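Entry 14. Ran structure prediction on the chain below.
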Amino acid sequence: MKNLDIPYLPALDVLDLSSVGFLMENKSRRIYVNVINWDKYPYLPVVVADVARSDTSLYIRFFVKGNSMKAVYPDDGSPVHKDSCVEFFMKKADEDSYLNFEFNCIGACDASRRTSRDSKTPFTGRDYSLIRRYSSLERKALPERKGVHAWELAVAIPLRLMGLDPGALPEKILGNFYKCADETDSPHYVSWNPVDTPAPDFHRPEFFGEMYFR
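Output, structure tokens:
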């Protein structure tokens, strides 16, 4: 099981989300989403994620470079995993339920509270409004563009939305980071922490890594 120290960067809360790149690149913890879990899907794009937290939120800045780019779902709550998509799943160490946050390359989000793949409580419109996002692309539907493309996405997820008390954070949470693109010319399912299942399945908290608040 991999682990990750999440540094504390209070300055993130005073910066516009479009301006956090330099600070996160230099002060956050960088991870690589580069585990190919299933031989049927050997394609591996370049995917890195810079991770840090402020007094209020968990910040993740994704950088992706790979074959094709697609975002036909511009609305929150839509199946963005079918597009060019990055994902963050997390749970408290002492709870069975978990949360999934999935974002396509233009920043549309699909999120829910779950006890399994098939048992979920979708986020509300108000919940989505609390998740700040900045994409290097325009927030409008994007038909698939083939060839090599690169994009960045920065997100700020409120700690309270994750079920955490900012004033009394646990020592650690459990989680995983993913990259997928189900309905593109180069479908793939890669992760930060390995997932040992017969077929692609990101909804497996038993394979989450450890993430420590610093």
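Residues 11 and 211 are 21 Å apart (CA to CA). Will compare against last week's run tomorrow.
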